[in-house]
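Rotation project, supervised by the postdoc (A.L.). Task for the rotation student: set up a whole-complex structure prediction and record inputs and outputs verbatim in this book. Inputs entered:
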Amino acid sequence: MTTVEPRRPVRRGSTAARDESSASTAPSRRRAISPSWGVAPFALYVALFLALPTAIALGTGFVDGEGAFTFDNIAALGDPFVINGFTTSIVLSAVTALIGAVLGALVCYALIGTRPDGPLRSMIDAASGVLAQFGGVMLAFAFVATIGIQGLITVQLRDVFGIDIFADGVWLYEAPGLVLPYIYFQVPLMVIIFLPALEALKPQWAEAAATLGGTTATYWRRIALPVLAPSFLGSLLLLFANAFSSYATAAALTSQGQSIVPLQIRAALTSETLLGRENLAGALALGMIIVMAIAMSLYALLQRRAARWQR
Amino acid sequence: MSVVTRGPGPVSGAPAPSRWLRWSILCIIGTLFAVPIIAMVEFTLRRGLEGGYDFSRWMLVLTGSLGPEYRVLGQAIGNSLVLAAATVALMIVLLVPTMILVHLKLPRWRRVLEFVCLLPISIPAIVLVVGLAPVYGVIARAAGSGVWSLAFAYSVLVLPFAYRAVQSNLDAIDAQTLTEAARSLGASWPVVIARVLLPNLRTGLLAGAFISVAVVLGEFTIASLLNRQNLQTALVIVQKDDPFIAVIVALLSLLFAFLLLLVIGFIGRAGANRPRRTS
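Outputs recorded:
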């Protein structure tokens, strides 16, 4: 495990600035093992299972079947098939993020004034956690049972209202079919990440607005919405990133589809050659990382701005 | 407004919606979210071509009298539980001591550690799997392709969740004073960690462990593309033969995860309400 230090509180070699005052009381002739070594096991683990795989994923895009350097795979990112995949992925993520963010924010608004430790909040917290994290395969089952060809809603609409939702062909297993399942995990995620921002609104602001004669509408328009805007946009980006990187639901819905980038990566990984190129998965992974990096950098910027009001 | 009657914990300072508006929003969205779950339950109760409903499939699953063709499911649940335990163990052995060390001794590295631990949020599992495939190729040659080795990859996935849970606990206790008190009374570092810090961190550790279990039980991407069998990949396989049984098991695992997170919530609140003592 971690490197255990000598028994006496020897901290000469310590890089910890905060400790210096207390450490100086115990001078020692023995030189301590630097505590920096204690992080070595974790650093090694992260290097092997986070840094190395990421580097391989990004690096293989630049290597051809024989291991020689090539831009051929990266050039494939300009192929209409791949561009189509990225466009579909980005539009799908953006649309579901927007709908999810609005619906999720509505739920957060409805929860204002409820006790954080009450049964209602406990249930909603747990349900949001499950649906946001656990979804995946289960969501594919749920929506096949709901709007599949023999699904509950499909059959009801057809038999009772005479509406055939699949009149123009079955869209559940294509990209449009992913919209509803994705919204199903975006709304709970929004509740989880946006509620803390709403809770950080200070009662004094509402009181000040009321004392100065402002109505509730004024309070929302002039105080709460401007303060919440960075948090809302940040949450929107997080939801986008969440949908963009999601794989399980789509994979469980279609075993062959290649409509979105994660499914194209699956095809590239399992069929060895896609578009006649080896290592295309690496190039696609690189493209995904670039989109994610842009989204997460913007998120970090907005988060810094949002933090101003949350002290 | 609820300024006077507020309970423990933060209540938003914004004016609350009217009772009528609150319940309309919650009921409409709640109903929409209930539809797919109800559809799944309805689906599992269908009696085949002649129509009507019965509980025969639920009885089959709940009494454990499924045929041998479903043995893959039991095995996969076993695999997932082993992975969950191994992932939590890795978290406690690798992450927690590092966090304590950085918190107490290397405060300058806190930002680095936080960045590394939150990084997996930005790296989609499907991207990670592209790079993990060769890494696991090496592992399989060296140590066999046992399912347990997936725990190394899963610990990366749960890093952000585990880090947040433990760090908020670490910030809430005065670890510096606790450690110095124990050290001045002659405790060795292993004793300080095992008997002073870990007991004080139990709230964060439990929350981190439970969320890790939920994430591992729900994981599909990595297991599926590295050809390992876990609960989720088995569900997809079973679903092709008998969608009814797959949906029942999915509903049960959903319920299990829900209860797990409900418990996390209670632990979190119990921790927050406990008066902060540094004993």
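Student's summary: Chain A touches chain B through 107 residues (CB under 8 Å).
Supervisor addendum: Confidence is low (pLDDT under 50) at residues 1-29 of chain A.
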